[in-house]
Design a protein that fits this description.
Low-confidence stretches: none
Mean pLDDT: 96
Strand content: 15-25%
Distance between the termini: 53 Å
Strand order of the largest sheet: 2-1-3-10-11
Bound molecules: (2S)-2-hydroxybutanedioic acid, iron/sulfur cluster
Length: 520
Amino acid sequence: MQNFEQSVYKLIVETSTNLPGDVRQAIKRAQEAEDRATRSGLSLSTIASNIEMAETKISPICQDTGMPTFVVHTPVGANQLVMKQQIRNAIAQATKDGKLRTNSVDSLTGGNTGDNLGPGTPVIHFEQWEKDTIDVRLILKGGGCENKNIQYSLPAELEGLGKAGRDLDGIRKCIMHAVYQAQGQGCSAGFIGVGIGGDRTTGYELAKQQLFRRTDDTNPIPELQKLEDYVMEHANQLGIGTMGFGGQVTLLGCKVGVMNRLPASFFVSVAYNCWAFRRQGVLLSAETGDIIDWVYPQGSELPMKDESAVSQAAEAAASMASESSERREVRLKMPLTEEEVRSLRVGDIVILDGEMHTGRDALHKHLMDHDSPVDLNGAVIYHCGPVMLKDEQGWQVKAAGPTTSIREEPYQGDIIKKFGIRAVIGKGGMGAKTLAALQEHGAVYLNAIGGAAQYYAECFKRVNGVDFMEFGIPEAMWHLQTEGFAAIVTMDAHGNSLHADVEKDSFNKLAQFKEPVFTS
Ligand SMILES: O=C(O)C[C@H](O)C(=O)O
Ligand code: SF4
């Protein structure tokens, strides 16, 4: 077992940096289904480039490298204590090397352990089996999509869908609702794992286990296969699209499992995973710990770049459409003026140069009753918790995509007005309070593409400084010299919100699925 730790390290790096082949296949199909000239189509192209960049640079696909969750099958009698220690060592090493973000935070003090180790992290499940090999599987599921997990207790009354009973049709309604309520906030298009039955804990566990199934497998239970097919077809009619921009593809995969329940309980648990569906596995020799095989097709087997003539023509058409009068591209230098910002409209693409500042949960809470360490008049705040590494030249940005903005809804409007901020960049959109503040003060919300952490890291040319390192690397306020950062205006200073429109439209579509489909 001398190579067990090294093999687990390789598994962690592969999982974080190289999206598996079956997941890539699902994203490629989405690209084919979506018109390339639309916002969703263009976002999918960026996602595809980001996947390639992460693989080439051996850097995290998304800056949120998630809750590392291992499922390990060992021969009877193998020493699990030693394995556990070696998994922990491999996690700490991968964090030090910038392949994982420092993601383990003390829930009471907010302190970041800095090495991804701490009470409850990483998660390691051991099972024994009769085989003489070791199977180690890993999923890195990020926090934004984890926040969109949902558990239903049947019978229930569901908005838009009416009564959901304790039967297959009630389950169908829960799953449709689960996709609807995620909107774009979990970086759609997503994958869902569904657990029917169990208790509140095992139901969610069963839902997560489904995410370990291959995206192209067949459910051994025919009724559940039918349900999966139904959801794949109809959830994609909700019109939520990539990042909630509207479009044909909202869901990339649906896997449903079932277990027994108590007579009084009937839970339907849904685990939502973003497009950056990072899970991989290795089969190891129990003697040496060497890798015998990979469990899922490796990403390198399926390049995301489509070199065919057809695709190049479509690409050219898309870029021409994006240059047409319908889509305005505006290049602005930070700090921004009120006039510049008030001239922007939902749908405009803004390209930013100059200095921007990151800020997420801890900073927003802090700024409510403290001063800012830098002048934020005209500033652009980026909701982002990057992966950073320090070398001889100083801090380097290793991965830096947006985080879910809605968490800052209680603070954002006040902070915009208090400091004179002119733009906020994030993903998933914000609510009515922020929209009103944008209009009142003269500011915009820009939606960046969630998960495209390598794509955006390239735009940060230099780290000008950092404040609040005591909040930990993801929560600190990084001052970043930026060139060519592109994002779409999805909430403008005139009271328009693409997010509110898509939510309303998808709600109307959801209500079309009210009538029973699976009758017993
Ligand atoms: O924590 C992050 O950087 C992002 C998070 O996964 C999110 O989706 O909001
Ligand atoms: S930012 Fe998006 S892609 Fe990254 S972990 Fe969060 S939900 Fe997933």
